[in-house]
């Protein structure tokens, strides 16, 4: 990997970490430059403005999410287990008392560029479509049991995980996320 690629990735890694902690409007390029150990001009070289950085962040996050759910689909055939693994995706940021990038971007929605908002909508749509498919298949195969439509169940599942992240962060108590995530999965058996 070349130095330019390494620098761009380091910038994105650092920016993502900061956004997941303080939100998109809670930092400047100077904060990233200090953490990465570069000048702000180097950040502007890769991401001319903050909107470009936001678009790159959500695009990369989306690609990683697609890869993660593809891995779940490949490794796991039981839909209940797929949902358990999905909750682990949302549990990752909680370990550092942060939330996922999507949740934090949502709090700054009004100030995001149109492309970043579209990327965020695409991320949530993909989450919901995957959840709906897994829920439908799980009910058809007898692994899952719930009333109503899979669409509504998917919305409730995703909203609950996102809320669980916020509660765990607010109370600085990872067990709150774990209790909610396990309750969501258990309620489907």
From TrEMBL:
Protein origin, superkingdom: Bacteria
Xref: InterPro entries: Homeodomain-like_sf (IPR009057), HTH_TetR (IPR001647), Tet_transcr_reg_TetR-rel_C_sf (IPR036271)
GO molecular function: DNA binding
DNA-binding region: 28-47
Signal peptide: none
Domain spans labelled HTH tetR-type: 5-65
Annotated Gene3D superfamilies: Tetracycline Repressor, domain 2
UniProt entry keywords in alphabetical sequence: DNA-binding, Transcription, Transcription regulation
PROSITE patterns: HTH_TETR_2 (PS50977)
PANTHER family assigned: HTH-TYPE TRANSCRIPTIONAL REPRESSOR NEMR (PTHR47506:SF6), TRANSCRIPTIONAL REGULATORY PROTEIN (PTHR47506)
Protein's recorded name: TetR family transcriptional regulator
Species classification: Bacteria, Bacillati, Bacillota, Bacilli, Bacillales
């Amino acid at each position: 990997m070349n130095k330019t690629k390494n620098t761009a990735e380091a910038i994105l890694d650092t920016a993502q970490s900061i956004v997941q902690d303080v939100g998109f409007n809670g930092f400047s390029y100077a904060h990233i430059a200090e953490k990465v150990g570069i000048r702000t001009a180097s950040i502007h070289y890769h991401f001319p403005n903050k909107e470009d950085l936001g678009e790159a962040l959500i695009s990369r996050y989306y690609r990683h999410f697609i890869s993660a759910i593809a891995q779940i689909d490949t490794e796991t055939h039981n839909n209940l287990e797929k949902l358990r693994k999905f909750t682990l995706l949302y549990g990752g940021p909680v370990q550092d008392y942060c939330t996922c990038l999507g949740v934090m971007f949502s709090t700054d929605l009004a100030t995001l560029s149109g492309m970043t908002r579209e990327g965020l909508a695409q991320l949530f749509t993909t989450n919901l479509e995957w959840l709906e498919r897994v829920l439908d298949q799980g009910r058809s195969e007898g692994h899952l049991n719930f009333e109503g439509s899979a669409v509504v169940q998917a919305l409730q599942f995703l909203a609950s995980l996102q809320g669980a992240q916020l509660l765990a962060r607010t109370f600085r108590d990872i067990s709150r996320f774990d209790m909610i995530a396990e309750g969501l999965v258990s309620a489907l058996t």
